[in-house]
TrEMBL record, chains A, B:
The gene is purS. SUPFAM superfamilies: PurS-like. It comes from Paracoccus spongiarum. Part of the phosphoribosylformylglycinamidine synthase complex involved in the purines biosynthetic pathway. Catalyzes the ATP-dependent conversion of formylglycinamide ribonucleotide (FGAR) and glutamine to yield formylglycinamidine ribonucleotide (FGAM) and glutamate. The FGAM synthase complex is composed of three subunits. PurQ produces an ammonia molecule by converting glutamine to glutamate. PurL transfers the ammonia molecule to FGAR to form FGAM in an ATP-dependent manner. This is Phosphoribosylformylglycinamidine synthase subunit PurS. One of its GO terms (molecular function) is phosphoribosylformylglycinamidine synthase activity. It comes from the Bacteria.
Amino acid sequence: MKARVTIMLKDGVLDPQGEAIRHALGGLGHRGVAGVRQGKLIELDLDATDPEAARAEVARMCEGLLANTVIEKYAIEIA
Amino acid sequence: MKARVTIMLKDGVLDPQGEAIRHALGGLGHRGVAGVRQGKLIELDLDATDPEAARAEVARMCEGLLANTVIEKYAIEIA
C-alpha cells in the first residue's frame, strides 16, 4: 500500500524558499507569477493492507517525525 | 489560477534523504515501512487564465529552473 504525504508551511508562515523561487522565475522572464510556496512530498511504501489503519499510522508518523506541526500542515493520501 | 508541481527523483536514482527518513521511522517504532522517497511540492499562484497556456508555461519553468530533469521527474496539476 502506498501513502503520499504532502507537507506545506501553514498559511501566514513566511516561506523564504518559495519567495526565492518566485524571484528566480521573474529573473528568467516568467512574468505573471503572483506567489510561490514550496513544500515537501513524501511517498511511503507500506506493508499495511488496511487503508484506515495505514492512514492512522501515517498520521502518527507525521505528528512524530515528518512534519513540524507548529508551522507546517500535512495531508495524507492512501492509494 | 493555481498550479501544483510535484518533483520526485526518477526511479532508480538513489534517494538518501528518503532512506534517512525510513531509518528514522524504524527507530521510532514504525515497522512495516518498506520504502520512502522524498520529493518537492511547489505551488504557484499564476495570473494566467487559460489552463493550457498555464500548463505550458509551468512546464517551461520546470525544465528551466524547478526540476533537474537529468535525475528528477515532474508532474503538473492545474486547478
